[in-house]
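Lab notebook: predicted structure, single chain.

Context: the supervisor wants predicted structures on file for every construct in the current expression panel, including those that have not yet been purified. This is the next one on the list. No modifications to the sequence; it matches the entry in the shared construct table.
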Amino acid sequence: MKFVFILLLLCATVQAENFVVGAATGPDPETPSHRPFWTLQNKVGFGVLASLIAADAITTQRGLSEGLHESNPLMRPFVTRGAGGEAVGSALGFGFGVGTAYLLHRTHHYKAERIAMGVMVSGESAVVGHNIAAIH
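Prediction complete. Output recorded below exactly as produced.
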């Protein structure tokens, strides 16, 4: 019961802060404009990146079952542990990609954010293409 009370008190405190901020006359004209992170371009880019990472995971595990080896020394400890390790490695890679783009966005490097997204998608496309060529 004590936990629920503390949680409700915390929620009320956060809502009270929103009321104080909302009472202001409007945004400060000196503050820089804020661009949303989850634009259509980022949603599509991260969706494509996620599908490419999934394709990379599938083709890597198939290649490992056919006697090939992982050439990336950072991912090697994960992918040699089977599908579970591959999932963890893929999730870490995707999280690193999203984190990099978000860090660039928060530091107002919007052009670098778009370039980084293109590089990540291009690089992952090349890896998937190489895996498919190596399997066949």
